[in-house]
Amino acid sequence: MFWKSKAAVPLLCALFAVLLLAGLVWNGALTPAAQATVEVEDGDTAETATAVSSGTNEEQLRSRVFVENEVVDVRITIDPQDFEDMLEQASEEVMKTASVEYNGIKVDNIGIRTKGNLSLRSVVNMPDSNRYSFKLSLDEYMSSQHLFGVTKINLNNNFSDASSMREFMTYELAEELGLPVPGHSYVNVYVNGERYGTYLAVEQIGSAYLERYFGSSTGDLYKSEMSGAGGDLQWISDDADDYAALVKKSGGNSDDALIQMLDELNHGTDYESVLDVEAGLQYIALNVAANNTDSYIGQNKHNYYFYDKKGIFTILPWDYNLAFGQEGYSSLLIDEPTQGAVAERPLVHHLLEQPEYKEQYYTLLQQAIDKVLAADVFDARVDELYALIAEDVKQDPNAFYTFEQFQDGVEALKAVNASQVNIISEQLEGTRPSSGDGSGSGGGRNPDGMDGGMGMRNNAAAEGNAEDAGGFPGPAAGEGMPPDGAGRPGAGEQGAMDQQGEPGVQGQQGMQGMAPPGMQAGGGRTGFGGPAMENGGTAGSTAEALTAGAALLLLIGGCLMILFFRRNRL
């Protein structure tokens, strides 16, 4: 009989090895590039080549994925019914299964969902719009999948930015100042072969990003959310649970380093023992120079990450679609750039009260002007971006704005920048006050509980100086109306919201159920043709569990067969 033959043991072992190898390959454990291929044209022929690397590669990311001076195609294929369901349940951010061809690189079995908060719900309430932001999760079902290390990419819809350039330009400024910047580039998104819109692709801060800039991704990564306490970094207690706004995204189980950093920042003076002070100054300078109050310095105290590497915390920039005065503030006091009392933002307050650090901060502001924001430099770069994306924006079938409003938005961006550069320069020169009574630059409350922030902007507004108050007066944005055609809110109710959807600081009425200008009537949620895909949800996780279970059963069965055979021989 076979069981008693001398070939039984090696044959059983070989069979088990083949089945186990097949299971591992199916699960993607041994082939991280198995689901990502690129068609490389060579004359009249094409070959399939490996499209992902075993680690991060900044040069490949810049040349293949985040190509900053090109608009590349991102072609998503998804079951039409799944896509329809995703749009109908957009506020629930349901993950669906799809495939994507990203600038020629094809990745199957990925996750895709809508993303955002209040901005997402605002688009939900627009009867004729389905221009959502999307998140591509390449490793959602296949844990080894990535594009040159990157596993998640955000497709941002440029909500409330008629110019489509504010976030892009701010990341370029951040890079000039020396901050670690996520990969970003313009893309044309297609769904099942049909053009969907021109978006800004932004790398999600995660392992690949951390590996590139810090050489390791094992440290604690926190993100500040708008809800909960602690986003302002003020001391509450030594219990990490009291800092609900600081959400841990990755890392170990202990929050001791976070508590130590907060303690030293609020009660000590040796800031460099717990903080990357240079990065902190760069971050403050970035938000002041780009006039981005939808950040740590603003009323919502959010849109930043903190990464802890061996006890030293580095603040990381994030989310800049409301930069360049989009929230209505183009006159920040450079020594009190906060909305609310500067003492309520210890990262700003304690760093800028040190003469040495303040001098570094002033140098960074001047560097921002000289290298990026000076009118000749800034306008030339904006014109380059206009030439890059204008034709694509003009053909965008789901654009929030008309092409004429896009053009107006581009010119408004130049004008807002010129105004704030002038104001910052005068403060650096000492010809304009750079500080006030400690109440900040507008918004929030003073420590005594009174409305605060009667800084330069509000004083200017009271005096009727429209340029200093915000640069561009306009009609009040009525209830349900979007920002004006230039991509900025009117001088009345503030309707702007950030890319993740949080409301602006001066009002929360904007875009309540009304389509932005330029939205084509009838542009609702239509179906898209395409090959059927597996349903989303837990499909990938289930497949992995079944494969692992089958391999385990085969292992046990093989061992039992061998044991039975040997007992019979004995």
Automatic annotation (TrEMBL):
TM stretches of this protein: 545-565
Protein's UniProt name: Spore coat protein CotH
Pfam families for the chain: CotH
Compositional bias per record (Gly residues), positions renumbered to this chain: 437-455, 520-530
Domain of life the protein comes from: Bacteria
Biased composition (Low complexity): 456-486, 499-519
Residue ranges of the region described as Disordered: 426-540
Annotated keywords: Capsid protein, Membrane, Transmembrane, Transmembrane helix, Virion
